[in-house]
Amino acid sequence: MGIFNLAVLSTTVDRLGTSDSKSVVSVNLFVALLCACIIVGHLLEENRWINESITALAIGICTGVVILLLSKGKSSHLLVFSEDLFFIYLLPPIIFNAGFQVKKKQFFRNFMTITLFGTVGTLISFSIISLGAIYIFNKLDVGTLKMGDFLAIGAIFSATDSVCTLQVLNQDQTPLLYSLVFGEGVVNDATSVVLFNAVQNVDLSNIDAAIIFQLIGNFIYLFLMSTLLGVVAGLLSAFIIKKLYFGRHSTDREIAIMILMAYLSYMLAELSDLSAILTVFFCGIVMSHYTWHNVTESSRVTTKHAFATLSFIAEIFIFLYVGMDALDIEKWRYISDSPGTSVAVSSILLGLILVGRAAFVFPLSFISNLAKKSSSDKIELKQQVTIWWAGLMRGAVSMALAYNQFSSVGITQLRGDAFMITSTITVVLFSTVVFGLLTKPLVLHLLPSPKHLSRMISSDLMTSKSFTVPLLNGQDSEADLDLVAPLRKSLNVPHLNGQDSEADLDLPSPGIPRPTSLRMLLTNSSHSVHHYWRKFDNSFMRPVFGGRGFVPFVPGSPIEQSFHNGSDNYPTSEQTLP
Amino acid sequence: MGIFNLAVLSTTVDRLGTSDSKSVVSVNLFVALLCACIIVGHLLEENRWINESITALAIGICTGVVILLLSKGKSSHLLVFSEDLFFIYLLPPIIFNAGFQVKKKQFFRNFMTITLFGTVGTLISFSIISLGAIYIFNKLDVGTLKMGDFLAIGAIFSATDSVCTLQVLNQDQTPLLYSLVFGEGVVNDATSVVLFNAVQNVDLSNIDAAIIFQLIGNFIYLFLMSTLLGVVAGLLSAFIIKKLYFGRHSTDREIAIMILMAYLSYMLAELSDLSAILTVFFCGIVMSHYTWHNVTESSRVTTKHAFATLSFIAEIFIFLYVGMDALDIEKWRYISDSPGTSVAVSSILLGLILVGRAAFVFPLSFISNLAKKSSSDKIELKQQVTIWWAGLMRGAVSMALAYNQFSSVGITQLRGDAFMITSTITVVLFSTVVFGLLTKPLVLHLLPSPKHLSRMISSDLMTSKSFTVPLLNGQDSEADLDLVAPLRKSLNVPHLNGQDSEADLDLPSPGIPRPTSLRMLLTNSSHSVHHYWRKFDNSFMRPVFGGRGFVPFVPGSPIEQSFHNGSDNYPTSEQTLP
After folding, report:
1. Which residue of A has its CA nearest to B409?
2. Where is the Cation/H+ exchanger transmembrane domain (chains A, B) (predicted)?
3. What is the CATH number of domain B28-447?
4. Nearest by CB: A309 against B39, B255, B304
5. Residues of chain A with CATH 1.20.1530.20
6. Is B309 on the interface with A (CB under 8 A)?
7. Burial classification of residue A85, based on how many CB atoms lie within 10 Å of its CB (0-12 exposed, 13-18 middle, 19 or more buried)
């Protein structure tokens, strides 16, 4: 089928003005390649080295070679890289699904650490890469790059792509690590895009303290407003679906409203120059917390899987595209006279990425550990290495930002720009393929056997048990008990993981030193925030916006059982009992 | 929110070169309007007159007026009408979903009648409208129209849009009528597009017998090849999913493969200049018969609802767009000097549509009734009137074909072309709004009360019972019994509706005359085809491509129960027992 298309392609590529027929050929080829990626990815599922991203990249590169040969060296790709395509159609489902499927309990429990890694960490990485680039690139012959370009380089190469590592980690076996890597990945995406926009909007001709404060102010404003917009959109959808009770007439309307509202939040954020990624991420979280529980059972199953599938297809599409685009001859022509410099630039960038990431993962882990009271909540050294490694890959966001900064309408003109585009491609390809291939073995080596993992869990459980078993049915606020306790009973789930009850803080387990004042402060604030949030949620939010408490819930129904790993707020027995 | 966007819009519309920001505004506005349509549609669900299409049209027109005012009469729409958008993105999900959700048993039972109406009927309608247009328009001052234009007009106005009527009819209460209206709508869509393409591809300068034969040959070739491609794509997806057992690792891959293969079949048909509508329709039928039963339970729920939702959104999008586009000032300028002629042209076309449809519905119903043995299978006069009425609306397909024939890149240049575009808009708007508003009352008047409807069903059942109850477990071929009987037993469904057993033909019920030889011939051939098909399906197709027989089926599981109206091959107890 692919060959058939390519044969048609080689004849149609020459005809001008037939954009219609050419686009049909492109779409055909892309869809056929997507199918191929899925099938090959499935067949290689058990493989120790390969993952879906690498498969898609490899198939993309092979297709690029074939097209290059068929078009006699003219072009290697079918579509001009379009930021619109990426930012308007492919990224939203990926990020929305991330928010929708995230285990909210884990995410919010580690919220401080995740935010620390995702914002402060990204800022540190950004500074190191920018400063390193300024310092080193001026000594190399890479054409003219302005101050804004260097800062953009910092932002571009701070955007990590942790998909590879997430495919290897198991959400049930290493919940802490998974939520840290996952959460950091999302916040990092948002931070780097926000940083990139902030850098572009600020006048950089003369930097002084005022401008730096302006940058920081800009950053915080974007962060808060984007989050707010996402939360409002999510709550609005929950409110509409709850009030109008769509399920009465048609499940299609429920699903359509959820999809459209999520997309609308993303596009409104784009329109208002906010961080659409953050907006749609928080919209996803709110939708899975409220809206999802207001719809009919079949809508729940459908949205859960439909969003995951959309995200899955979009991810493969991106890697396939990056693979195809890597061989685009135009870009490589500019730097063909100095291949040594190109290799040097890419190597320096890779080095800066390694250093920049190490410079924040280990110190911030140390700070985060100070705030944790139980040893199971602390980030061990091996886990720190895994977190460091997980953020070394660079992916589609870096590509898209690089195209935005260094090319106009997909065409690269200046020498410096060409260098940066090709270096980005090299870094993305190298990190995805080489680091990606090493990820599975490395993670299995660092977190070796399922035995080790299960030991970690059971120790975790024993700790939390010794904390909470005596406290069952005791320390929760009344509002909590009224709404949650009967539900929990019907679910047959004991109230473990009850770190949010205040009494926790006064019961240090044997062998763990009493909290220091700094730790006390951080833990205390985080826990009381969570406590008040639950109170607020139960007494005000749920009556208005719906949620678990207001839907007839049949324990043991096949759908709920098979999807308990998803958006549950309460731990199920499998997760918490040995 | 809409107003906010429009305010931004009015400032951005003037800026040139900012296609990016303009497209973001357009997408925002469109998504917000889609949400509005869904909510308003939901609120008006119980209304006697309004349906979702009319809501979307009305909202589209209102938005068009606002944009027209804001842009000071420059333009009324945000996007230029793009055939690509329509034929590549909006139509495929609608038609695929039609095939996917069709009740195959009813569809294939009435296959002869549906094909008769959809192909022969459309050809009759096409001839009458073309000849009428040639005869009448030459007398009016409507600019120069060529022979090809007149034939195109015939094809354009033969494409019906039966969505309005289907929203009113109940698939469970009037299964025969529903399957006829629905099936004819799909086959008609395909026929008119195939006709349109055939007319465009044939040299029309001098018509003789050879060219007419060429047209017919072209038509049959397109029909058969398109069907074949769809069937092959569907079977391929079933085979891949069954062989590789995707569900083992991930439900996302199953769903993704189904979506992508369906879309690939559509795009391959487009590429090969076949009728993509027919292809994707039969792909949907095959997928629901084989592939759907090979995937996991949650994938089944997800695909069912996701496809329905996509189709739902696409339909609203089209009507919204047609509403917005109706006020486009450019087109009306050409005909503003002769409004009388414009009204005349539209009225004549509407008249031709009414006559052209009457000219085949009643005669073909008579022929079809000759072939039916039981009175319940015959199409009553009131039902004939309903079928006639259901096909009077014209919709998006007519619009898209008219744009294809009478404008280049969305701009209408010649006087004759402008007349035809505006007339198409007028006919589409008038028929959708006026006929659409009358549909609900008319159908309720013709098929008055649920009592009457339930009487029809029970009489239907009694007839088929008196035929088949004595034949239970007797007349089926051995292959049938081996595979189906235990399944049927486990389903607790007696073997009613067994018209495929040969003995049926020899048992006329009292009061119905013995079959005439013509009836005998038609009934016989149709029934033996079905019989041999089931034999072939059970002994060869199912072992290779999967299907109901090979998936562990839990009777009474909530998903199966709540979706029994969908793609079941076997009547469930609710449908067949009083």
Report:
1. A20
2. 31-443
3. 1.20.1530.20
4. B255
5. 28-447
6. yes
7. middle
